[in-house]
Amino acid sequence: MTMTSPAKVPELALPARTPHRAPKRASRFKPGAGKQLQGGPFAYIALAVVGIGSLLPLYWTLVAASHTQDEVLASTPPFLPGGRLMHNLDAAWTQAHLGKAIVNSFIVSSCITVATLFFCTLAGYAFAKMRFRGRGALMTGVIATLTIPPQLSVVPLFMLMSDLGWSGSLESVIFPTLVSAFGVFFMRQYLSEALPYELIEAAKIDGANNFRVVLSIVLPVARPAMMVLGMLTFVQAWNDFFWPYLALNQQNPTLQVALGQLSASYTPDQSIVMAGALISTLPLLVVFVIFGKRIVGGIMSGAVKG
Amino acid sequence: MATSTPTRDAHTPPPRGSQRKPVNAHRQMWRSRIWRFDDKASPYAYIAPFFLVFGAFGLYPLIYTGWIALHRVEMTGLDRMEWVGWANFDRILHDAEFWTAVSNTFLIGVMSTVPQLLVALGLAHLLNYKLRASTFWRTIILTPYATSVASAALVFALVFRADGGLLNWVLHFVGLGDTNWANGHWTSKIAISVIVIWRWTGYNTLIYLAAMQAVPTDLYEAASLDGASRWQQFRKVTIPSLRPTILFTIVISTIGSMQLFGEPLLLEGGTLGAIGGNEHQYETLSVYLYNYGWNLGHLGPAAAVAWAMLALLLIIAAVNWLFGRFVRKSAV
Fold first, then answer.
1. Beta-carbon count within 10 A of B224 CB
2. Would the pLDDT of A177 be above 70?
3. What ipTM was predicted for this assembly?
4. A95-268 is classed in which CATH architecture?
């Protein structure tokens, strides 16, 4: 840090500043910290069973999506993927307008993710490192909003969207989710440990105003946490079902809504429904395979309550 | 949560490169005023977006729900509101289907939360051992979290199908065939609970694991010096250290189970899904609300259901609080 020449800023004269909080342990969750007991074969067997249970439904989605419905529902169901995958994907694509739904899902999830990252980092920084009146109470308010289920406000929300002229359009799904209490909490936790006061003060001494500090100090420091929060937010926005299902219609659905409508149609073909499910899950599975480690770490670090 | 911060003086006049150029006093005053304003207003500006969005799309609708619940509003004419007083509440409270939905929500909530959290606790304990490829196991267990309610519900609908369902095929080998899962009162609730458990166990496992890794190892060393077995260590050290986390997951899961919507809606799909089965055997409060508001088009009663859910949440919170107090007292 810039401890170089304190003589250059004599007029600063900080009045009896209390010493900085002792730096917390950098990471409380170092895997393998301390003495860990070695896992025996039982642990591996149990984990393997649970792991298979976790993956089996996904595998079954693939199997069902690659056969005809009759084969899937036969008295002896198939266990290996068949050759009808392309045909079923194609059918799902045209029957449920999945092309448009995918584009919609990408628009919605990206907008929500970008906005959430920006607003939550700002708010998290303010709660972590700035002093202002009512901070504790406001943070309690943020956390309290976590406990309010969306069900409680959908009826007026629907009417509000109709008043705003957003009925059935993507705005009605994007705007209510632009911020997230979890995100504010998550960024606050991260920044209060990862961002030293010295860094902020150094920037201020160099003449940066508050927003400048955010741009050139806070955002770079927050980047790892923003990556994690971004992925969590994207997954959540992509998978959201309740409000989009009420707010959007058949002409302009997100993937999940299209999927719900596909299955709600008169006697749906199960293989085609499964092909739709595969299309809606595949992008996230790819994200998971690539970033799984980071998402796991993010959930673990965001989960801890003081 | 730690809310104390070092007292950093917000009014510290910022240092400027004023030694080089003499700045006149007037300008300097202005600058420090702007600076002070920046310091005062910035935190509020940074948290404002959260509160504005939440106020507009969360808090305002939440309160307005109460007003709508006292009116007749139809989906066909959203701008016409007609005062009816308590009629909507009267209507749902005298509806047997509403009480079925309440008890279903409660039962499915218990049936999905309890096993889920117990399994998560056990799994977290296993993952807390030193394992090969521990990240791999964690990722695998979290994978269901990446699937949506919709796709999970649809796959399990296929697994739980009465004819041609995967589960019934498996059960045939044990000599237990042809359960009509969605039709039965208990079996349909089991089916829905399984979907919930499948999707959320991994998530809760990681939360517990994080908390377990924060438990100081010397506690275990002390316990083992005192001759405590593994099981005793788990019970006497791990579980008490995890108590706040466990309480947190219980609260989150309870709120989550109040919201169950996609799972029951899509278990059978179509018109049966919208009413939660032919005898409403798996209709949850969310489905009931959806059915009243979006299927039948009566938004007034739907808003009344929302308030009933709020009341239920408050009751659960009170029970939780009392329970927590009881546990703390009996622990002393």
1. 14
2. yes
3. 0.85
4. Orthogonal Bundle (1.10)
